[in-house]
Amino acid sequence: MQPQAFHRAVADDFSAVDEIIKKQLTSRVPLVSTISDYITSSGGKRLRPLLVLLAGKALGHQSDDLRLLAATIELLHTSTLLHDDVVDMSGMRRGRSTANAKWGNAPSVLVGDFLYSRSFEMMVELGSMSVMKILSHATRIIAEGEVLQLSKVRDASTTEEIYMEVIRGKTAMLFEASAHSAAALTGASAEQCEALRTFGDHLGVAFQLVDDLLDYRGDAETLGKNVGDDLAEGKPTLPLIYTMREGNAEQAALVRQAIQKGGIEDLERIRVAVEDCGALDYTAQLARDYVAKAIAQLEVLPASQYRNALVELSEFAVARTH
């Protein structure tokens, strides 16, 4: 499925969001603008601002505030990417060098702080205490999710429950906040706000499950990142956790050892193991289940092209190859 289908419903708004983002990147310090522009112009799916625009419009909201909120969330997301790449020592994102690979860790962290701070200035401009509450809460949960993941690096005893807690924090939380804050901004009913919050959570979980699946089924050129990165860092993702739990003794031992020592020396053998024991099928099915639950939440919205686009976006999240 091509993402253009659900982009089209809010194409004009999306262009306006890009313009807002560009204006927010100006700084009296040239390096801040250079790195900010580099990271925000590197492409990406921009699913989070899309969620804001589609959810808000599905609720009948048409004001410029929706565009500002979408830009705010994209800047917030971008700030976390800069920090994540430093923490993960990543050299590649979206098919090109990461900011830390080009300029070093210190500038990347500090420009991440700049974008994070700028997003909060934009939140204040929105003048909605309910939106501020949702987004400030989300930033804390995201940070906790990242620290929890860090604490489980090279820990082969990590359970599926802990893994789900990690991805709910580090990934699903901002999807949840995107849909939830859009509903709050529009003054939606309590039922609609809760349904969209849940929708975002389920969609975010599915998105991360597919990301972790593609680490073993994808290729670097299509994904725009280094395949096997999570394995190299010793991160116990669901395909690995399932293999240790359900695979045969040899498969489980192979994965356990790879997590504990890090590195991708055994990547090809592990790819075979996670495929043969059913770990990738299990992960893919769980992602489909979460997307089905996400789509069910959209019943609280009136029928419209925007609700249809939210369904299409959800289906894309599990059908994608990158």
UniProtKB/TrEMBL annotation:
Stored InterPro entries: Isoprenoid_synthase_dom_sf (IPR008949), Polyprenyl_synt (IPR000092), Polyprenyl_synt_CS (IPR033749)
Coiled-coil regions, chain positions: none
Keyword Magnesium: yes
The protein's enzyme class: transferase
Catalysed reactions, semicolon-separated: 5 isopentenyl diphosphate + (2E,6E)-farnesyl diphosphate = all-trans-octaprenyl diphosphate + 5 diphosphate
Keyword Nuclease: no
PANTHER family reported in the protein's UniProt record: ALL TRANS-POLYPRENYL-DIPHOSPHATE SYNTHASE PDSS1, GERANYLGERANYL PYROPHOSPHATE SYNTHASE
Protein family (similarity comment): Belongs to the FPP/GGPP synthase family.
Stated name of the protein: Octaprenyl diphosphate synthase
Organism: Pseudomonas rhizosphaerae
